[in-house]
Design a protein that fits this description.
The protein is built from 11 helices and no strands. With 192 residues, the protein is an all-alpha fold. The protein has a single domain, classed as Hypothetical protein af1432, CATH 1.10.3210. Helix 4 packs across helix 10. The radius of gyration is 16 Å and the shape is globular. The mean pLDDT is 96.
Length: 192
């Protein structure tokens, strides 16, 4: 898709429901980030512009309150939109991860602090799982997961719902979300 696509065409794809979501779409940096990505494993849809509706479709499958749905939509709109400016160098500079940029973008708007935290940490459960599954480092995984849960406080369920909605898109492996469901106590597991 062409980067010169109009804001109206973007809106027709993303279907913003609130003034806040429309403000996101009006931002030129946000719009630029929507065009990042090529079809690849985990994201056969390619561009972020096409990933967001997949996650939103999963959000709509949940039996949740209007407020929880609003929160999940906010996270969904911004979580991957700044992959285009992420530093992918080695060693990894985690201060330049797309989730940090997404948080900084979201800080410009009047949203609850926990939405900033979840947006910034949205990939953290996946990284915790990788430590166990790929690097055979269960203690490091346990420590990292404990830090994540501490940062989330009483918003673990909301985080989990987003993680599930995001993971059940494209052709992503489902093992990380199953691991999270089996490992984290006190969450209400959902199926869709």
């Amino acid at each position: 898709m062409n980067k010169n696509i109009t804001e109206d065409k973007i809106a027709a794809i993303l279907k913003p429901e609130t003034e806040l979501e429309r403000q996101f779409l009006a931002d030129p940096d946000f719009r630029e980030g929507l065009f990042y990505g090529k079809p690849r494993y985990g994201h056969p849809e390619g561009q972020v512009l096409y990933h967001i509706p997949e996650v939103l479709a999963n959000v709509d499958k949940l039996d949740i309150s209007v407020e929880t749905r609003r929160h999940l939509r906010i996270i969904t709109f911004v979580h991957d939109t700044f992959k285009n400016i992420e530093d992918k160098g080695s060693p990894r500079d985690w201060t330049k991860h797309h989730s940090v940029y997404a948080r900084k973008f979201l800080e410009k708007f009047p949203v609850e602090d926990f939405l900033l935290t979840i947006t910034e940490l949205h990939d953290e459960a996946y990284y915790c799982w990788r430590l166990v599954a790929l690097y055979n480092a269960p203690e490091k995984s346990k420590e990292r997961l404990a830090t994540l849960l501490e940062q989330l406080g009483d918003k673990v369920q909301l985080y989990y719902l987003f993680f599930k909605c995001d993971t059940q898109t494209g052709d992503k492996i489902q093992t990380p979300v199953r691991w999270f469901e089996e490992t984290v106590e006190g969450i209400e597991v959902v199926h869709f």
